[in-house]
Amino acid sequence: MRVDYRFCPACGSRLLPREVEGRWLPGCPACDFVAWPDPKVAVAVLAHDGHGQLLLIRRGTPPAQGEWALPGGYVDAQETPTEAARRELLEETGLELEVERLEGVHHVPVGDGGGLLVLAYVGRLSGGKGRTTPEALELAMVDPARSPELGFSAHREALAGWRAQGG
């Protein structure tokens, strides 16, 4: 999600182009606010059953609607990334997660904005009752070696990293 600032959120003055560290960015002439194109933070969950099977969802919403993906979504300001991983999995699938470790951090450039940082977590499914939702039209437990193509580059990278680490 990109925010195009036209006015300073601190003092309301009109922002003007300003060179900062070799880049032209919207800046406030009155209070020195600079609109840095910071990345959003999201999580992706490599949720396994402890017997070598990985949970995938078929997305019900854009982007990548109808494609296979790892469960996940944005980290809210009041939660830790691991809390976000558990919440997103529960919201999308009705399943609970015991987070085991961070697989990796993946950067996704987004246009000329700040991009997206995807924190991929590995965890074991620990309870709940699987169900479909508007965000996850289908759930599937798959052999990670025979996974269908995933709709997001960060998810493909996370899956490859998980496989390289031995699952």
Write a brief structural summary.
The protein is mainly beta. Helix content is 15%, strand content 38%. Strands 6-3-8-7 form a 4-stranded mixed β-sheet, with helices on both faces. Strands 5-4-9 form a 3-stranded antiparallel β-sheet, with no helix packed on it.
Tell me about this structure:
The chain is mainly beta. It has two domains: 1-36, no CATH class; 40-164, Nucleoside Triphosphate Pyrophosphohydrolase, CATH 3.90.79.10. It is 15% helix and 38% strand. It is built from two helices and nine strands, in the order ββββββαβββα. The strands form three sheets. The chain has a four-stranded mixed sheet with strand order 6-3-8-7, with helices on both faces. Strands 5-4-9 form a three-stranded antiparallel sheet, with no helix packed on it. It has a two-stranded antiparallel ribbon with strand order 1-2. A hairpin with an 8-residue loop joins β4 (54-59) and β5 (68-69). The longest helix is centred in the middle third of the chain and has 13 residues, at 81-93. The radius of gyration is 19 Å and the shape is elongated.
The CATH architecture of the largest domain comes to Alpha-Beta Complex
How does the overall form come out from the CA principal axes?
elongated
- Strand line-up of the largest beta sheet: 6-3-8-7
Spans of at least 5 consecutive residues whose pLDDT stays below 50 are none
Written as H for each helix and E for each strand, in order along the chain, the element string is EEEEEEHEEEH
Number of strands: 9
User: Could you name the CATH topology of the largest domain?
Assistant: Nucleoside Triphosphate Pyrophosphohydrolase
Tell me the fraction of residues in β-strands, as a range: 35-45%
What would you give as the CATH superfamily of the largest domain?
Nucleoside Triphosphate Pyrophosphohydrolase
Range of helix content = 10-25%
What integer is the average pLDDT? 94
Number of domains: 2
Structural class: mainly beta
How many distinct helices? 2
Radius of gyration: 19 Å
